[in-house]
Amino acid sequence: MIFNLTKLMFLISLIFSTMFSISSTNWMSMWMGLEMNLFSFIPILNFKMSIYSIESTMKYFMIQAFASILLMMFMINKMLFFMINNNLLIIIPLLIKLSLMPFHLWMPSMIEGLNWLSCLLMFTWQKISPMILISYLNMNKNFIFMILFLMINSIMGMNQNSLRKILAMSSINNSSWMLMLIMINENMWMYYFMIYSTLNFLIINILMKYKINYINQLKFFNMNFMFKLNMLMLIFSIMGLPPMMGFLMKWMLIKTLMYNNMYMIMYMLILLTIFNLYFYMKMSYFLIFNFNLFNKWFMQNKKNKFNYIMFLNFFSLFLNFFNLN
Q: Where are the transmembrane segments (predicted)?
């Protein structure tokens, strides 16, 4: 993708709006930062103009504008009437912006019409401002626990063939882990977010490079051994299997919940993650069993070099070893 000055300007404005929102000292400035973030992100969604991206952009704009109106109404209500439980109202528009249950139905339908760069920004950068604003609220952990009870979005991803929708369901599930972690320890949330963003970047980089959009394309896609191994390790990592890097980010929250005697929330999070393993296993099924239409000895790249993805995954083995000790 070639960046011209216009695209670069919108990306810089997107970064600046997020920093402005999370560094503000009052809710009005935070709301202004969220609005700047919205109007900076709308042109980024249309870098590659198509009828599908226009439809997704309109969906995103309407949902985010509705959430901003609710946030403004609740802020005015808090400043004028000083309601005691107003924090419960302010968190609702932030959950809409995060696409968390029960306000998550707009994300899978919207994400299908976007390109992979916009999907990466949706899964990573656009979660920073709402989550940090939620951490500023003096929320009761029981309210977050009730949200986790409603997290049945994993069931929706079981019958999906689109990789964009599968990654969107994975993003919603990981957002519940990050939301719980940022309410307890913000420093550990930063580690979780960095690992999750790295895994998303590596997976989306492969899918964008080889133009893979659906699971069915993995069945007849001619791939060499190193590509298979890289993709499998990344899928196992984002699944949260113990040897991989993705287990490190989930293990941090599990240990924190155990230290705080929050066992019910820990059991609920683990149970919801198990449902996600199903559509991850669908992705890995076509990689483990070879369905190529070409000869077995045919290789796209005869000279395979050591990939940086392999280095990151093997390095995560040592991180998990020292963390478990």
A: 61-82, 88-107, 166-184, 190-208, 229-253, 265-294, 306-324
Q: Number of folded domains in the chain?
A: 1
List the structure tokens of 132: 């940090």
| C-alpha R_g of the chain | 20
Q: Which domain holds residue 297?
A: 5-324
Question: Which helix (H) or strand (E) element contains residue 49?
Answer: none
What's the average model confidence in pLDDT over 265-269?
79
Hunting for tokens 């390790």 — which residue is that? 233
Separation of first and last alpha carbons in the chain:
43
Q: Model-level pTM?
A: 0.82
CA atoms within 13 A on the CB side of 33: 22
Has residue 324 got a pLDDT over 60? no
Please determine, for residue 85, whether its predicted confidence score (pLDDT) is greater than 60. no
- In single-letter form, the type of residue at position 177 comes to W
| 141 in Cβ contact with 119 (< 8 Å) | no
Q: How many CA atoms lie within 13 A of 268 on its CB side?
A: 17
3-state secondary structure of 134: helix
Confidence of residue 139 (pLDDT cuts 50, 70, 90): low
Give the pLDDT band (50/70/90) at residue 18: very high
Instruction: Pick the closest to residue 207 from 192, 218, 191 (CA basis).
Output: 218
What is the spatial distance between Cα 270 and Cα 278, in angstroms, rounded to a whole number?
Answer: 14
**DSSP assignment, residue 306?**
P
**Which of 236, 233, 100, 63 shows the shortest CA–CA distance to 178?**
100
Element containing residue 291 per DSSP (H, E): none
Q: What is the DSSP letter of 244?
A: S
CA–CA separation, 68 and 71 (whole Å): 5
